[in-house]
Amino acid sequence: MRWQLVSPAETAGLRFDDEALVFNPSSWETHFLNESAALVLDALVAGPRSVDEIVAEVADEVEIPEGFAGQVAALLGQLESLGLVAARA
Amino acid sequence: MRVADLGAAGIRERLAGPGLALDFGFLRARVRSDVPGLDEAIGRVYAEFAVEEADGFFDATAGVIRARGLRRFVRPQIDFFVDGELPFEPFPADTHLPLLEWGLNWCIAQRSNTHLLLHAGVVEKHGLAVVLPALPGSGKSTLVAALCSRGYRLLSDEFGVVRLDDAMLLPLLKPVALKEASIDVIRKFAPESALGPVFPKTRKGDVAHFAPPAAATARRREPAAPALVLFPQFGMGEALDLEPMPKSRAFAKVSANSFNYGLLGRRAFDALGRIVAACDVYRLTYGDLGEAIGAIDELVGARARHRDSVQPHL
Q: Which residues of chain B fall below pLDDT 50?
């Protein structure tokens, strides 16, 4: 299964220090993301990714903890419930 | 010619006839009224506004009028109207100017969705705008009035008007409403300031208005670039403290307090993002106006020197 942004062209992000903000075009809400969530979303900006691909890309940027793939999967579920990302087979 | 030059009789004649044109910079309103005493109050708080003809396009035609009904003999009341509608319940007749101001602010908040409206005061010096987001009890209006008595140009007190295309801040010049103890604070701090009459025991307590100075009204079409966001917090006896604030937190606070951030979608996100990215952000705690202004002077001066060092004036 791969994950992708629902509306890549309309999703906008900002980074300030170690926090990020993302504009959600589905709800017009602004969400505040921690560093890990921002890196996951960054990975999806380039196109659809599997969890393993996301983990590999994040690992290139920061040191990841053990079990990070599970955290990414849970995070993607949260982002999906916000309407920011969607899964495709 | 200035509004003050019309005198109370000239203002009364316009209010009762074609209307008194008020150019706030970002918006223009045509004000009409038959309420005694409003002419004199307008002459004081809009003294430095240019006299303009009342024909042509206006964003609103609004004013206060005497309410009908038996109560006009017992305890006279007045209505705020805008473009033929009476949106509020009547108010006591002796609160004419506060009602006019609140009503106009309500119109601005309802109708100005071509721009992002922050709930913030904005002043400018050296071409750099200082944004002072309002939190209840923060002393924002007092600080805005005090800054304007010490060389800062008033852009707005209640509404920080952000142009969506380039995130520049636009003037929206209205009298600064001072409440309760703030009235005497400004009288003592800046005795040369022009204040309107005191309206006792309004719904917001005693209210008086600081009149926009001539230096501000003359530059009512001139925007300013955002440079500082300061969250002021007055506390009696508090020592001066200037604490940097994370920009993401500033974004959250400013967007939550905006009048229309949620209505403007991506364009508001982008514009506010540009402002926060461009600005240094601090929480300013103070107990002494002079100290607070000294600290703001240092911040603005440093920004201006930095700008001039990388972009020298030709």
A: none
- Å from A3 to nearest chain B CA? 23
B15 vs B8: CA distance, rounded Å: 10
Q: Tell me the pLDDT tens digit for each residue of A44-86.
A: 999 999 999 999 999 998 888 899 999 999 999 999 999 999 9
A-chain CB neighbours of B253 within 8 Å are none
Q: What is the reported pTM?
A: 0.93
Quick: pLDDT tens for B179-188.
999 999 999 9
Total number of domains in chain A: 1
Give the ranges where chain B is alpha helix by DSSP (H).
Answer: 3-16, 38-45, 71-74, 96-111, 140-148, 181-189, 214-217, 247-257, 261-264, 266-278, 289-310
What token pair was written down for B52? 């303009």
| Domain layout of chain B by residue ranges | 3-111, 116-310
CB of B11 closer than 8 Å to CB of B92 = no
Residue among A19, A25, A28 whose CB faces B246 most closely: A19
* A38-49 as b/e: b if 16+ CB within 10 A: bbbbbbbeeebb
Answer whether A16 sits within 8 Å of B255, measured CB to CB: no
DSSP reduced 3-state for A88:
strand
Instruction: State the residue range of the domain holding A33.
Output: 2-88
Which CATH number belongs to the domain containing residue A47 in this structure?
A: 3.90.930.60
Chain B hits for A10, Cβ within 8 Å: 266
Sheet holding A12-16, edge to edge: A12-16, A19-24, A29-33
